[in-house]
Batch of 2 targets.
Target 1
Amino acid sequence: MMPQTQVKNLINGQKLRNGQTSMDIISPLDGSVISNLPMSNSSDLDAAVEAAKKAFPTWSDMTLKERVHIFFKYRQLLEDNIEELTELVHLENGKTEDEARAEVLKSMELCEFAVSMPQIVTNEIQEVSKGVECRIERKPLGVVACITPFNFPNMVPHWTVPNALILGNTLVLKPSELVPLSAVRMGDLLKEAGLPDGVFNIVNGGKEVVEAICDHPDIKATSFVGSTKVAKIVYKRASGNLQRCVALGGAKNHLLVLPDANPDMTANNVVASMAGCAGQRCMAASVMVGVDKVQHIIDKMIAEANLIMPGKNLGPVISQEAKDRIEGYITEAEAQGAKILVDGRGVTVSGHEKGFYVGPTIIDYVKPDMAIAKEEIFGPVISIIRASDIDEAIRIENGSNYGNAAAVFTESGSMAKRVMDGASAGMIGVNIGVPVPREPFSFGGWNESKFGVGDITGKSSIEFWTQNKKTTTKWNPEDKRDWMS
């Protein structure tokens, strides 16, 4: 199925486009125009929120089991349409077919967790005094919103939408203006699964819609995933307007490699973490801290990187601007004295000469104060910083402003434990290059990789997407044994 000529908003079950200004959607595979997007305004958001408000009473009044039943159907529709959904991710984001399919499979897994909510969300009840009961029930917040990035157009919306909706909220999604096609199809499939009109709405656009979401008095909570720069702005603005907000930002993930690490496994994992999804993921390896004598592992990394071929097992980055920025970082590091071991600049792919490709890049002898060592690159690039011992390596990792993930490669349990305890990151890997926790565990980092309290994924997301109602009851007027009775 080819994408629609024009992307439309989804408001109260209707696809609408109200003469807004627009922008073309460019496929990073070859630079071609694949669709056109409305740059919506605050009035469009107002209409979506109003639809969600009207849908909320009926939707929230349904039993948890009834809401879950719709998502059982929806999860099956994801499986039935996996080839089409894979192609959409490939086309609009540039991921390889295998990476795109893995993303859709992860979305299915997220739905599987969401439909387990009846086994997880249980009310608490206790007889706190003679004849007196207290109970706690989870209640939805109302209208909520999520703002999602370009790098996982199918998966990241599934971090929020199934959980938030199953828990009884109604929702407005603002997908990245670079990759709206997967979100549009998501809306189609949710409607096919039986989701009532107005429960799920999509408003496309850019900065104006984001600001309107943060400012809207009827939106009770907002989740954001994107760069740290924007995450800070969204968190401050939304929370300043008394919304709940969790904003997940960028990363600069450090992989600490010790001399005793298994050479083949380590080289494969580090390079795969660096180059997977063209490095456009907040869990990608960005800095390798080589502890003492690790040249034998670096040599194997070079060999692994040389097996990665743009256009075959490596997709493009999202835009020409991103390509230029990434290559600029590499050039600057080289000018500052770093050594380019594998150079991904100037790549073109036959038949896709206008695609936005950057080849795998390994840079050695990087200093911690270089821009390439400190700033998020978001491309298939890894910097190697040399450390004399594990303590220096941990200090280098701790020096980052970010704190999404960190990993250690070693055969020593005690060395691994030191990194597990000492790394300043929310997600830790031991001999794992991409330490993404699986449900029911939540995704989220520390420091400038996350703003706000709580989680939007996993079991702990229940706390974020609901509020507690506490009820105390007494039906025995004759019993007066203590003050509460």
Note: The CA atoms of residues 109 and 326 lie 32 Å apart.
Target 2
Amino acid sequence: MEKHNMLAISTAHIEPTVLEKMNDGENVGCIYYAKEGYGFFLPVVDLLDGSAGQLPECLDQAITLARREGCTFLMIDGDVSVIEQLPEYEHA
């Protein structure tokens, strides 16, 4: 049996422009899956295809934290509390 750990962070830790692109299904430099309008799931994998340089800093920081915590998935959700380990961005 395999189990995977997931780090859950608030959408407040993702820049509004990046969230807008993700909501529109645009490329943000990594694989992500929509959570039916409630956020996103991201597999925490090494970016081997050269897209690492295209990754927005907010996502890079979140993915780095998830890796450091031994997680294999990152969940971005508006209902999750803000944490002090990541910057917080103002959302309209």
Note: The helical segments are 16-23, 57-68.
